[in-house]
Model the fold of this input.
Amino acid sequence: MKTQVVIVGAGPSGLLLGHLLRAAGVDCVVVERQAPDYVLGRIRAGVLETVTTDLMTRLGLDARLKAEGLVEEGFNLATADHLIRIDIKALTGKHVTVYGQTEVTRDLMDAAAERGLRVIYEAKDLALHDIDGDAPFVTYTRDGAQHRIDTQFIAGCDGFHGPSRKAIPAGAVREFEREYPFGWLGILADVPPCHPELIYANTDKGFALASMRSLTRSRYYVQVPLTDRVENWSEERLWDELAERFDPLSDHKVTRGPALEMSIAPLRSYVFETMRHGRLFLAGDSAHIVPPTGAKGLNLAASDVAYLSDALIAWFARGDETGLTGYQARALARIWKAERFSWYLTKLMHRFPEDGAFEHRMQTAELDYVATSRAMQTAIAENYVGLPL
Ligand code: FAD
Ligand code: DHB
Done:
């Protein structure tokens, strides 16, 4: 098979890129290791910036997002016993939208066939070849048969564990990493949220987040040690923990219900600066990870894809190479600012095991300052809604 762009990975970055290229008449094929149901079964991000929702609008794929997404004009930072509301609408004129990553992915998947976007699922053993030359190709196996796709460019949208980043020779690599000594234990349940807006809380027992997917579906997280396992937590124990952390902040509105999903995600900051090598371009989690505090992961994937699709479209339309040459620097400028914000909110809102009473006083003083300073609130709000493209 031959195409203009092979996209590795059918997560949100791969599918968004595929649709943007198809809408401009660029031929591309998305190759995904998993089956569609597996991709849709991963419960991840929940808060979308306008950068992300605008891309769905540009593609004409925002009908369900507009109908079912919840427009959020504020969110809350909290100490153990009081809320600090960040009025993002008043401070920035913008809002964010609560609409799950699963739903974005489903909308993009459902529209693929009618938009002529080819997606090959269950492609195993994918390997990238000749990325340094003008004629790269990928190989994979499917149903026991070996396949090859010849292409002009490869977009590595295959997440943190995919093969694209690993195909770049070690000598060319610049990477930066920070691991955190805790993870987030999440629960999804069909119960009404305890508060109309998100609450990020720094409580005596550690960080906790009250989020939602709709007015009848809640998503909660609590900070747990890295060594913890989901098997150590019964649903009952987690609801007890959530009630303890959120009842004082929500007027005892934590409603319990059976878990649709429970899992632990580790927290990490990671940037792989070599986002271009020859004919390979990386986008989304394949090039960077943020700790989830701040909800930036999926939104950064969307901004990478906005830059990369513009660059590839200009190249195929007019032979204009400036976008491709500038892609890495343009993407990294936004990525590093989102890394900074996610790192800042993580430091501010979590209990670090190595921290003592002094560091805790620093957090308390900073939250007190945020509570009383419009300048601080504005800085937080403009990062939360997403910096401009
Ligand atoms: P992914 O969604 O990882 O998609 C990559 C795709 O590539 C996958 O479908 C994968 O199967 C495929 N792939 C991998 N290897 C191969 C291969 N060999 N061949 C072909 N295909 C391959 N962000 C937030 O903002 N808020 C959150 O609450 C949040 N929670 C998260 C929880 C977890 C456990 C994780 C891992 C991430 C979370 N994120 C969150 C981050 C957010 O989900 C990601 O930033 C987003 O998924 C990035 O999209 P992506 O398309 O770049 O990567
Ligand atoms: C959700 C996850 C986040 O990391 C965040 O900052 C806000 C919301 C969520 O899953 O709903």
In short: Residues 369 and 376 are 8 Å apart (CA to CA). The first strand starts at residue 5 and ends at 8. The pocket of 3,4-dihydroxybenzoic acid (ligand 2) is lined by residues 45-47, 198, 211, 219, 292-295 (CB under 6 Å). Residues 5-72+95-177+268-346 form a domain with the FAD/NAD(P)-binding domain fold (CATH 3.50.50.60).
